Please model this.
Amino acid sequence: MNADSLPTDSLDRFRALLERSDAALVLAVMTGFYLLFLGIGAILNYNLAGLISILGQVTFFTTVYALVVLALNLHWGYAGLFNIGIAGFMAVGVYTMAMLTAPPTGSPPGLGLPVAVGIVGGMVAAALIGLVTALPALRLRADYLAIVTVAISEIIRLTYNSPAFSTFTLPGGIDLGTGGASGIGNFPSNPVRGIYYVNPGSASSDPTPLGTAVFGFFENTLGVFRSAVIVDLTYGLVLVVVVFLVYTLLARVGNSPFGRVLKAIREDEVVAKSLGKDTNRFKIKTFMLGCALMGLAGVVWQGFGTGAVYPQAFRPELTFFIFIAVIIGGAGSNTGSVLGGAVFANLLFLLPQYLPNIIEQTFAIQASPNTFVAAVAPIAAGEIAPLLGYVLNQRLPALRFIFVGVLLVYLMQNRPEGLLGHRTETAAAVDLTENHRSGGGPEQTPDTSGVADGEGGVDDE
Amino acid sequence: METWEDSLGSERVLSTYIMGVMSDRGSQVVRDNIGGIIVGLSGLLLLADLAGKLTGGGLTPARFGGFVWDGLVIGILIGLAGIGLSLTYSILGFANFAHGDYISWGAFSGWAVAYLLAGIDRYAAGGLLLIGGGGGPAPGDVGISITNTPASIVAGLIVAVGFTVGVSLLVDRLVYRPIREAGGITLLIASIGVAFVLRYLIVFFFYNGRQGVTDIGRIPTYDLAGVVITAHELTIVIVGLLLMLGVHLLLQRTKLGKAMRAMADNRDLAQVTGIPVEGVIRTTWILGGGLAGAAGYLVVLTQGTIAYNLGWLLLLLIFAAVIMGGIGSVYGAIVGGLVIGLASRLSLIWLTGDLSSFAEPVAFGLMIFVLLFRPEGIFGGVSTA
Model:
């Protein structure tokens, strides 16, 4: 805007494109994040394999956050259900998957079923727990629902954590187990490994013909020998597809008659009821769908992404992370959810993990006192380095939480509607605004530009 | 008129009115009765089983008495912390998720001072102020107990109350006051942010794990008909009951208390009557924050250890107590705290062995049950009086 006339013109056109096309917006943001993290990798002198690994990480965390944020947006943004038990539903999904697919001979024993059965089972189980939660939840005010869902999520976590179900025997004589506090670590590995390896479960397996070809390509042309990096990157790409599918599903749901009733409930439940809609039935269905997606997110995140499941991963902090991502993106907008997930995952989750290395490399801070007193005492002698060392080497994770909290308060005070909250889809089927922009429905841009069409069509019907 | 619709009480009135119109009133009554029937039946079953266990020798009276005593101690602490949560919930209209972290700050600020006073004659101040963090003096060396170092414990309690009052006033000024008129959910989310900041500020200044504080070897124990009672538990009960009595007198005997009750009932009406709203809100924070700080400080007295998330771990139990007693009711919060405390300990009679890890889920389950069948609390929605 403050540039010369020619760039201003193209800048304006770019801005107009971003305003118009969700796909372009997401793409632009993600390109920015990829470049940022490539830059970080370059500062840290990573080799090519390291750079690919960092890109794989960015993709993984962006997509898993986007997935669960989309699910939460369905609850909160569409149906107005204030669910803060997300971690519990994710835990149900991934634990069910792990218990269904873990080998019967392992410790804890599982049922040894195929991975696909496990994924579907995890989603169904999460949806059923969602049903059990939703039945009472519908009678409650929003703040009571918040307390109930967080309590249920804690009950779920404490149940998985309890030694009582570490291993147990089903009535039919089948052994099963949650592993108690140490969780489950021996369920099938990431299905993507099956693309590249003959025997995906084994670390020293021979590659499949496709695996040989891909690994060979990376070795010969790029000089990258770490096949794990390639598997991770592939998994990230698979997750991109998953997020795209879920986004499309939710966009369809949102624009269907079902979705319009949901928005009506969110705006004014009494009106929706007065019009003869059984709002409770709509809420239950929505809650179950969202919970199933949270279960799926648990499976692809903690299950296949981390490769081990343990109860401590599902503390309420996880729920609040997702919530902050939704608030950043703006409740009610699916594109906002994806962007909120991306912003949180990259800037608030991933970036702080690289920050200490960068600062240390740039400023060479060696001191690392392990208490606050030892850090501030030398200030009297004019030495600031111990305090910096304490902050960077000892307390950066805590500072990240503090920053997240401050951000949350700031957003609530100044921008409770979030980054894209102004685009909240209205309940009306027709555009009520004059300038045809704030409706947010993708159909309202008939003159979709070539770029948006070419980029996989998030806008497409 | 906007705020009239936002205020909790009228929302409740409105929703009950609509429910009465919309749904079949008869089925509502039946559903309420189902809740009562379930409670009655399971209560009777448990009582019968308990009597059988006591007479049949499955459970000695001393062990039973031990559970009751433990439940009372934790119940008084939960009730003490619950008073503040209940007051802020009804007067400010939101569930304060940062309340647990006020409790933690009460514990850390108070014990830092108690540790310092107890050990300043022998150890460097730095390690003492950090409550033994980073290789500072160990609890056994500092030797804190109510009989060994009573002055430092009392000083710590005062600091805990004062510091937490300061924290809650500061947080209110910076965070909640600018969005006073916002909806309950906005304030709730902001309070989650506050919770994060407060909790991890503790980690920043102190430490991440759980550490011992009191000198277990120097706490006298008394045997009361087979029930072992420690001096620290006795201290908690006495201090807790005194504080509760103080709150009772404040609410019933002073004009301020009357103003607070009026505020909880209907903020706009109170304002019209000339009650200084901001002043009452400040008093609410002073009272609620101070009691939370005292509760946090006393929790460490019975647990013997301190951790940055100790208040957060208690928060759900406190919510359970407040909801059970009816939001806005101070006496409800106290009774609810006792019920939750007793329920979580007495459930251990049946939850033996590996199942003992389900004591907390039982309390949460009880809370969900109350919300389901009696969302106005077991006393039927009597506010603050």
Notes: The first helix of chain B runs from residue 2 to 6. Chain B has 16 helices and four strands. Residues 1-11 of chain B have pLDDT under 50 and may be disordered.
